[in-house]
Amino acid sequence: MFYFGADYYPEHWPEERWAEDARLMREAGCNVVRLAEFAWSRLEPRAGEFRFDWLDRALEVLGTHGIRAVLGTPTAAPPPWLCTTYPEILRVREDGVRVTLGHRRQYCPNHPTYRQLSRRIVAAMAEHYRDHPAVIGWQIDNEFGERCYCEVCREAFHAWLQRRYGTLERLNDAWGTIFWSQVYNDWAEIPLPLSTGGVPNPGLDLDFRRFMSDSYVSYQQEQVDILRAACPRHFITHNFMGIYYDRINYFDLARALDLVAWDNYPVNPWNAEPRADPTIVALSHDTMRGLKGKNFWVLEEQCSAGGWQTIGYAPRPGETRLWTYQAIAHGAEAVVYFRWRSARFGTEQYWHGILDHDARPRRRYCEVKQVGEELARIGGRLAGGEVRSEVALILSYDSRFAFQVQANNPEFSYPELLLAYYRALYRRNVPTDVAPPEADLSRYKVVLAPALHVVTPEIAENLRRYVTGGGTLLLTCRSGVKDVANKVVDLPLPGLLAELCGVEVEEYHSLYPSEAQPLAFTLPGLGDAGARPLARVWCDILKEEGMQAQVLARYTADYFAGHPAIALHKVGRGRVVYVGTVGDGNLCQALADWLIREAGVQPLLATPSEVEVTARWYDGRGRLFFVLNHGREAAPLQLDRAYRDLLSGRTLSGLIALPAREALILEEA
User: Fold this and answer.
1) Phi, psi (rounded to 5 degrees) for 330
2) Which pLDDT belongs to residue 104?
3) How much is the average pLDDT of 651-665?
4) Contacts with 166 (C-beta within 8 Å, 6 or more apart), sequence order
5) Residue 48 · residue 85 · CB < 8 Å
6) Which of 190, 170, 157, 197 shows the shortest CA–CA distance to 485?
7) Does the pLDDT of residue 665 top 70, yes or no?
8) Is 515 a catalytic residue?
9) For residue 495, which of 41, 281, 480, 666 is within the disulfide window of CB 3.0 to 4.6 Å?
10) 3-147+232-382: what CATH class?
């Protein structure tokens, strides 16, 4: 069954309106809503006084119209009585200032009082709704979460460090606290990395980021345990925030959940450009699918202009539908729009929903209804299929956190580098999984691990096993530089990966933007003379004397002109490409094209740049191809055979014109 619906806040509207909302939802094809994730003050208006009657009535109205519910645990928005009675539960910012009541996620995830009160409201809800026929699942909290720097977290951090290191001697050695006379003689001496404290020890800073990530994992686990025991028939999820949220290790957070859900806003008021970048959305979908290696939900899908103080981009006609099918193409089993009706009050008055403030159905409602009608007709064909990829992109949260501590170069961005390589594959319609560095990689023909900065012996062995077994691995500069404690290794770079790469970094150079230089390729077929790739941001100067690897490209300027920049090393039945620079998009594209060609990876279809193609496989039924035109103009598309479009029912073949913001779902005719 494919789930389709909206985030609904019945507590915001007169009760006599609920039946009309449910009727309009059902007419639009909705069969699920998310409820109550910000309703703590309504569910527990005073300490220990629970009021579920209003939510019971809302569920009854929705259930009468065949609409089921995912309930949110309301712990992201503690009510005023809680914050004023226990002000110590409020989070402390990095500058040492405690936040105040009035926003959301203002709590400390480690505070024992807040944890106890969170358990109480979750247990009460779980017990009350465990057998409710309309409830199918739970969303824990909402979009975890900011770091806290309070005294409770400081003490919890000390306890976390004691469990991790055992003794202060081991901690001092791991962090290198002899530097600047920072040797600790008591756990209580260890500070938090406040922004007012100067530049913290890199080992301390990385461990604090790990600790705060673990804090949210632990806080979530308490709610998971309650719900799992009381509601064994319901699924449990959390609404993640895609590839660009960088404060929690999402692989860890996803582990205890039944499925991953996420909130997709292709364009919001904080975007730099007034249009969506479908590559970023695709990467986020693939990352969410990769967290558990299984299909996912979208629990907040943008359907209109967002905004708090200002109003952002409004999706053009057809874009909401297009984004819906993009989500399904990448593995979504449910799409839930944010939100049903635009709020008339509060911070998000201008975060528009399917309905405007006056609740009258207009263009947005009609577009959602069109999707609902299509899914009612073909949704059974879409559920359950899997995305099968021959390429994987490695996402390392340890490396990501380490680059937050020390960026190495002001122009360097770890997520942007991941995106650059992903974009090169996306442009060729090559399905790509996102995986942690510890994952079993044996099923992939190509694995890309840009800037794998923090490397453990276990990770190095996992990559060696993959390559010797026949895999093709790409690594880049700033890989293998740090050990698990964020100390620079005492080995020639790339450290534990040097033997695998067959190279030694003799010297490196952090580039200013004005120092970018073209690369000269030495291998025919690698690179495009019409768009010469540039070395930028960073240059690893590889030692050529005694090099085991084959040189693929050389630098062309400065004192390292002529020195190797990119090298290929054959190991066992596989090979490693080491890229000694960050490079530009042309370099990523040239390398990706060469790698997939050499490894025998077949793109799904050749299309113009604005057209995305993804496939889902169905056991016994083959593939469905999703063809999406993200452009503002019609695009020519050459089909390699005859297909039937599930959306229109037409048979298509040869050269066709795909209208702007249009989607096809193709099966072989």
Assistant:
1) -95, 5
2) 93
3) 98
4) none
5) no
6) 170
7) yes
8) no
9) 480
10) alpha beta
pLDDT of 619 reads 87
Q: In this predicted model, what pLDDT tens digit does every residue of 539-578 receive, in sequence order?
A: 999 999 999 999 999 999 999 999 999 999 999 999 999 9
Contacts 24+ apart (CB under 8 A), 614-620: 614/282, 614/326, 614/329, 614/330, 614/387, 614/429, 614/431, 615/329, 615/387, 615/388, 615/431, 616/328, 616/329, 616/331, 616/382, 616/385, 616/386, 616/387, 617/385, 617/386, 617/387, 617/388, 618/384, 618/385
Q: What is the spatial distance between Cα 335 and Cα 339, in angstroms, rounded to a whole number?
A: 12
**Residue at token pair 């559920």:** 383
CA atoms within 13 A on the CB side of 399: 26
Q: What are 120-141's pLDDT values in tens digits?
A: 999 999 999 999 999 999 999 9
DSSP one-letter code for 65:
T
Give the per-residue pLDDT at 621: 83
DSSP for 457-505 reads: HHHHHHHHHHHHTT-EEEEETT-S-B-TTSPBPSSSTTGGGHHHHT--E
Closest CA to 613 of 632, 588, 592, 639: 639
Predicted confidence (pLDDT) at residue 636 exceeds the cutoff of 60: yes
Domain spanning 611-668 has what CATH number? 2.60.40.1180
pLDDT tens digits for 180-227? 999 999 999 999 999 988 889 999 999 999 999 999 999 999 999 999
Mean pLDDT of the chain: 96
In our burial notation (b when 16+ CB lie closer than 10 A, e otherwise), range 386-405 reads: ebebbbbbbbbbbbbbbbeb
Give the start-to-end residue ranges of the domains of the chain. Answer: 3-147+232-382, 391-599, 611-668
Two domains, one topology: 391-599 and 611-668: no
The rounded distance, in Å, linking the Cα atoms of 98 and 19 is 42
Strands 534-535 and 643-645: unpaired
Question: Which value, in Å, is the radius of gyration of the alpha carbons in the chain?
Answer: 26
| pLDDT 10s digits, 46-55 | 999 999 999 9
The H-assigned helical ranges of 10-52 are: 18-27, 40-43
| Paired residues of 520 in beta bridges | 554
- Dihedral, CA of residue 564, residue 568, residue 569 and residue 570, to nearest 10: -160
Q: Which of 60, 143, 222, 386 is catalytic?
A: 143
* pLDDT value at 528 more than 70: no
Average pLDDT over residues 103-111: 96
Give yes or no: 506 in active site: no
**Model pLDDT, residue 562:** 97
Indicate whether 530 pLDDT > 70: no
- Give the DSSP per-residue string, 587-643: HHHHHHHHHHHHHTPPPS----TTEEEEEEEETTTEEEEEEEE-SSS-EEEE-SS-E
pLDDT band for 268, please (50, 70, 90 cuts).
confident
Q: Classify residue 181 as exposed, middle or buried by CB count within 10 Å of its CB (0-12, 13-18, 19+).
A: exposed
- Exposed, middle or buried by CB within 10 Å (0-12, 13-18, 19+), for 44? buried
CB 441 within 8 A of CB 471: yes
447, 441 Cβ separation under 8 angstroms: yes
Using an 8 Å Cβ cutoff, are 545 and 503 in contact?
Answer: no
Pick the CATH number of 391-599 from 3.40.50.880, 3.40.190.10, 3.30.70.360, 2.60.40.420: 3.40.50.880
Q: pTM of the prediction?
A: 0.98
- Alpha carbon 658 to chain centroid distance? 29
| Calpha distance 359→542 (Å, rounded) | 64
Which residue is catalytic, options 44, 300, 319, 333?
300
